[in-house]
Amino acid sequence: MNKEHILIENRAKIQELIFNGTTFTKLAELYGYSKGYRIKEALLRNGFIIYDKNGERILNKIPIFKCKFCGQEFESKFKLAGHVTTCKKNPKYEDNLKNLEKGRFLFHEKDKNIFYCKFCGKETFNKGACVVHENSCEKNPNRKPHPNGNRTYAEGRVGWNKGKTALTDERVLKARNTRKERIEKGEIIIKGRPHSEKSKSLLRKKMINYIQENGNGEFGQHYSVIGCKYIDELNKKNNWNLQHALNGGEFEVDGFFLDGYDKNLNIAFEYDESKHYEDVYNNILKDKDIKRQERIIECLNCRFFRYNEKLGLLYEVKQKI
What is the pLDDT of residue 108? Predict the structure, then answer.
């Protein structure tokens, strides 16, 4: 049941309160509205009898506020006030614009409003920000501990997943997969322009560097020993020299690590377990593996071979013409 249904059910009681002079602010508190004017609008919509401030006339509809320059209508006098300043038919329109620009300039002219921390001397451009910093300043002898007891104010907000990755923490992996499922179901809508291939490449390399620098794990160590043995057999059989995790490390290209790569022959190789397939028995790869494959071929202009472990099938990927 919504708020307006509750008002209608209590019509007699509310009407009596209005006649007895109860303020709309008080009515808003009683019936769950955030502001007095909001419950007033709801009462007017549903035919309640409301007197004006002077008690002389009865309002039977939501008041409309009109701009005296252009005639545009607004439901709130506050919206009207915001419009009048920048109304193009207002004779003082040009002057108002100049005043607005002047105000913005003064606001951003920060040198005139610098506040210094009395403990460490840090500069801030807002008095409130200065007070917040002083409370958490490391040099403040009376620095307050954070309410949750895990950190101080000065350390700032530290998330549970800081410094962790899906490669090293099951909770991060679970959270990532849950978010992915919700996006696929349409529960989460991703807004904005998607990343370009260039930006995706930069993000992958940035993540690689971050993980290696922070010691949380290394790319190239999540490999299949059986896959490496199969690559060695391919090298002997076809006179290839595929480099893999156990004979020099996996070759990195555009933020991706190849299971095997022969630099001289320019041959890329991927050893695919069942998890890489939408339908392993019909040899249908997942979309992310297909996109990864296409990006690698685009960067290296190489021959690309894949091995389906479940079917025991080795095949060369046909490049698009």
Answer: 52
Same domain as 121, residue 144: yes
Q: How far apart are CA 115 and CA 134, in angstroms?
A: 11
Considering the domain architecture, whether residues 255 and 294 belong to the same structural domain is answered as: yes
Model-wide pTM > 0.70? no
Alpha carbon separation from 198 to 161, 207, 295 (Å, rounded): 27, 14, 11
Q: Based on the domain organization, do 129 and 51 belong to the same domain?
A: no
pLDDT at 58 over 60: no
Cα gap 257→316, rounded to integer Å: 19
Domain co-membership, 230 together with 309: yes
Residue 162 has pLDDT above 60, yes or no: yes
Residue 193 in any domain: the answer is no
Asked if residue 120 is part of any domain, the answer here is yes
- Note whether 81 and 30 are same-domain residues: no
Range of 98's domain?
73-108
Q: Confidence band (pLDDT; 50, 70, 90) for 281? A: confident
Task: Specify if 168 maps to a domain.
Answer: no
CB 135 within 8 A of CB 128: no
- What is the residue-averaged pLDDT of the chain? 80
Q: How many domains does the chain have?
A: 4
Please report whether residue 199 resides in a domain.
no
Instruction: Say how far apart CA 302 and CA 267 lie, in whole Å.
Output: 6
